[in-house]
């Protein structure tokens, strides 16, 4: 019985780790990156202050933070400015996919 529990636990860890890796492996094509950067620079937002949120790829933006659409064809990501940094967010998972520099 213990052996089955260990196998199930290992499988759950593997699956969970794969999901996190997939969230961090979002690839935005260079042409699309340029268009997105131009859009967010031309449409600046007021920065909101969130203490304790690490602005890293894969970090989750809290539900109470309003995300803003990027009005560019074929771009499904949204953006917000947190602690003076513009971040692209997957609206389905609310995970940061890129910190725009």
Please characterize this protein's 3D structure.
There is one protein chain. This protein has helices at residues 2-24, 30-42; strands at 68-69, 78-82, 85-90, 95-100. 36% of the residues lie in helices and 19% in strands. The protein has a 4-stranded antiparallel beta sheet, with no helix packed on it. A hairpin with a 2-residue loop joins strand 2 and strand 3.
Note the main attributes of this structure.
alpha+beta; 4-stranded antiparallel β-sheet
Order of strands across the main sheet: 1-2-3-4
Percentage beta strand = 15-25%
**Separate helix tally:** 2
Rg, rounded, reads: 17 Å
- Backbone shape: globular
Q: Helix-strand pattern, N to C? A: HHEEEE
The largest pleated sheet is described as:
4 strands, antiparallel
Please give the oligomerization state of what you see: single chain
Structural class: alpha+beta
Arithmetic mean of pLDDT = 82
| Poorly predicted sequence stretches spanning 5 or more consecutive residues | 2-23
The count of strands amounts to: 4
Report helical residue fraction. Answer: 25-40%
Helices and strands, with pairings:
Elements: H1 2-24, H2 30-42, E1 68-69, E2 78-82, E3 85-90, E4 95-100
Antiparallel strand pairs: 1-2, 2-3, 3-4
